[in-house]
Amino acid sequence: MSSASETTDASDVLALDALLSPEELAVRERVRDFTDQRIRPGIAGWYEDGVFPLELAQELGELGVLGMQLHGYGCPGRSAVEYGLAALELEAGDSGIRTFVSVQGSLAMTAIHKWGSEDQKQEWLPRMAAGELIGSFALTEPSAGSDPAAMRTVARRDGTGEDAGWVLDGTKRWIGLASVADVLVVWAGTDDGVRGFLVPAATPGVTATPIGRKLSMRASIQCDVAFDGVRLGPEALLPAARGLRGPFACLNEARYGIVWGAMGAARDSYEAALRYSQERVQFGRPLAGYQLTQEKLVNMLVEIQKGTLLALQLGRLKDAGKLRPEQIPLGKLNNVREAIAVAREARTILGGNGITLDYSPLRHAANLESVRTYEGTDEVHTLILGQHITGLSAFR
């Protein structure tokens, strides 16, 4: 099979590349090459076996995509658009690989960078940016997914005075990378509202159990995590994070990456279907020569071009410091929803062969069901936008 980079012109009828700077194009090509060389050859096996290749962690650090949009402390310090392009190319390989980058950089590292003390930043961020240490972000609970305000995990003061530590109890679910993490960013209720804590994974009382029997995101790690009387020193507290504003700021960073990443999965699905339709002969001619096939391909391409333009607009706004809270939900709602439709339609062109791991669209479609759910469901993003345009909250 040809690589994605050989068919890019078929994905860029609007010449969107002309909207990118030489530096942005260079970042994209570097990450695209990494995807072609390190992800595509192994992804079918990793997905089938249900494993994430941990050896990629330091390679992704060397690639410069961990905490890519963060500045200082050994972080790459790239632009929002450059990070988005990297997310797109990584998810063209697989959502699970892009999710690793998102959990590490947009969630765990962003929480430390935005809300941590100087000592915490110096201790964790340089080695996390290099992929030498892995972080996790523990917010969602078995009974508190879309409603994090209902979390039951609590942190109680352990002692009095400035040297008082904390005792952490509770459970979290669907926590990315927890079983392989070196440190977990844990959000818990306290007498002072929701606060964030840095919990070394080896701390007694922390148990992370990978969730199995998944039909989606199989080349990725999600866990149940239990905290049973976990004792933490005062240095564990993220001092600047107060209330749900703390985790929500990190979630918005992850959602932004998803807006781009979903278009990578869509583009890869479309290109797989396009190649197949040009090679597969039925009734004496290639599938690509039939009107119904061309209609499917065109409809896919239209949504990919529109979604990429949407992602680029959000990236430009973010780099200019003008991105508003309601704009990211619009991007995630549209781009993930359309990416799933593209992946499913691409599978129909592949016929029966499309249900095998020899081809990517059905794998992308399955992964995108998870992407559609995490960092805010369609329903949550719909209500966020609904509140914005009507001025009325329909959440409760």
Question: How many helices in DSSP terms?
Answer: 11
CATH homology superfamily name of the largest domain: Butyryl-CoA Dehydrogenase, subunit A, domain 3
Number of domains: 3
Strand content: 5-15%
Question: What is the N-to-C succession of helices and strands?
Answer: HHHHHHEEEEEEEHEEHHHH
Query: Based on DSSP secondary structure assignment, what is the total number of beta strands?
Result: 9
Uncertain residue ranges: 1-7
CATH architecture of the largest domain: Up-down Bundle
Strand order of the largest sheet: 2-3-7-6
Based on CA atoms alone, the radius of gyration comes out at 21 Å
Terminal residue distance:
51 Å
Most strands sheet:
4 strands, antiparallel
Q: Predict the CATH topology of the largest domain.
A: Butyryl-CoA Dehydrogenase, subunit A, domain 3
